[in-house]
Task: structure prediction
Amino acid sequence: MKTVWITGASGGIGNAAARLFAQEGYQVAAGYCRGRESAEALCEELRRQGYTAEAFGADLTDPEEVRRTLRAIEAAFGGVDVLVNNAGIAQQKLLTDMTDDEWRRMFAVNTDSVFYTCRAVIPQMVRRHAGSIVNVSSVWGVRGASCEAAYSASKAAVIGLTKALAKELGPSGIRVNCVAPGVIDTPMNACFDAQTMASLAEETPLCRIGTSGEAAEAILFLASDRARFITGQTLCADGGFMV
Result:
């Protein structure tokens, strides 16, 4: 049985992804930082349904905590076959008003954590000559967003890392791809008022906001053998927002 490590699984897209991977027969390592109750409730629900799931708490901006978490996952499940880097934060603020600490925090959570988790799991994937990594970026990492310069830059860095790792790890049979969700109905977007969300839906060719499940389906596809000849790609699950 394969194991997936999903960071940021306590809510939104990560929560939906955990459910989909469980239904596909994966053992689910549900990562969280502050959402312990949500992650543990998710795993308990999945176990009641007959699936295998366990919550693992860690601050992924700390490389030692990443290594400790991977050791715990290996002890529980035997290793990681699929890594989904979904943990992230957002902030709406003019660049000139952003503090040094806010800028560094954005990159620590959104970009450094991806580096740390990838660096941790890659050796075992190389030994097996198999594995899949799916990084979650954003459409703002592709096109940029006003008042979200730090967020856009951190998510653009994830896309660049994805492309580079796909070339670096391809000869070892490891695929690395990226999903760039558009405007999705998640707690992260709860900061927007109804008028803003309606305007964003209007800008989307499909004329609506996406769901966490729809973004999770894109993640599952890229991680699966159905995408076995796809690597280094950024799939915009955005309802046509980037068209």
